Amino acid sequence: MMGHLPFFPRMKKKSIIASTVTELKDLLRSFDTNGDGRLNHAELKNAFEKLGSMAPQLRALQALLDADENGDGCINEHELDKLLEFTVKHGHLVVLPEKQS
């Protein structure tokens, strides 16, 4: 075994890199295609497809299980930080460290 779970294969060699957390949150918000202020499973699946996941439907389900604190099946604005943590943890999004003056 190669040290990762086969149920969630590694992503394709593609990450989105941003200089601020705000940029990444705005990117995640941009996947809200129906404009209701929440990310549902289909929107998350689309997001993970665009972010290079090899198993976007499974990654979306895992993201919901991890970040959907109120259990409504969607990621709302309050839960966006948790989703951001999830996407960074799994290598889909990268925040560059702030430059020291």
What does this structure look like?
This protein has 101 residues and is mostly helical. The protein has a single domain (16-92), classed as EF-hand (Recoverin, domain 1). The chain has helices spanning 21-29, 41-50, 56-67, 80-89, and strands at residues 16-18, 93-95. It has a two-stranded parallel sheet with strand order 1-2. The protein starts with 15 loop residues before the first strand and ends in a 6-residue tail after the last strand.
In short:
One of its GO terms (molecular function) is calcium ion binding. The protein has four helices and two strands.
- Along the chain, the helix and strand elements come as EHHHHE
CATH architecture: Orthogonal Bundle
Low-pLDDT stretches = 1-13
Distance between the first and last residues' Cα? 44 Å
The CATH homologous superfamily is named: EF-hand
Enumerate the strands of the largest sheet in spatial order, edge to edge or round the barrel. Answer: 1-2
Proportion of residues in extended strands: 5-15%
- CATH first level: which class? Mainly Alpha
What's the structural domain tally?
1
SS content category: mainly alpha
Strands, count: 2
Number of helices: 4
- Mean pLDDT across the residues is 81
Report the principal-axis shape. Answer: globular
Largest sheet: 2 strands, parallel
Please tell me how large the radius of gyration is: 14 Å
Please give the share of residues in helix.
Answer: 40-55%
The CATH topology turns out to be: Recoverin, domain 1
